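Researcher: Here's the sequence for the chain we discussed earlier.
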Amino acid sequence: MNLLFFALAPVLIVIIYIYVKDKYEKESKRMLAYTFLLGAVVSIIITTILYKFFDLFLPIPDDYSVWQQFVKAFFIVALIEEFSKYVIVRYFNQPRKGFNEPFDGIIYAVMVSMGFAALENILYVFQGGMQVALLRAFTAIPAHATFGVLMGYFMGKAKFSKNKTKWNLIGLSLAIVFHGTYDFFLFINFIPGISIGAFVALILGIILSKKAIKSHQKGSFFKDTTG
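Model: Thanks. This is the structure I predict for it:
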């Protein structure tokens, strides 16, 4: 029970934080719950299927080189996981009338990401124990939240743009770049001290995420006051 609490507590903190930041027109709690569950179920199913595909048809040897770790980080793990979140926001949330302000892109992308992160975190924490729970509370969970904010920022722009495809794909690509960079430095931990690059990428992502949140709060404010 304690492990479950510590696995889910950082996810809940992120959800509360991003919900509070949605200042001008709160989203339906039911829709947020649905989005979270889709992230926990559908995203995990998509990633599992795609990982199995890569294992069968494009296997990477056990003796990874730096280049192979690069390919794995960006073109397998980051691409698969961010795509699995993207499709939910793109085809479930974005077309809805309730998606009616730029900030909605951020909150829905984060909810999908937290659904994904919650189930992933439970699996890791129950395998690794309290030490893993504490480590991931300050690394993997904020990382997934950050990727969600960066993706959602551009998906929020896409909703109100004539060129939806462009902004949606920019959001997906940026999430993949940050996710891939974060993972890459962790994957090549056989190089002493290199893992610090993951924390640099995470800190930069958090800084950009805060700016993205403020930007869309202003956009939502002007939309709310001008009708």
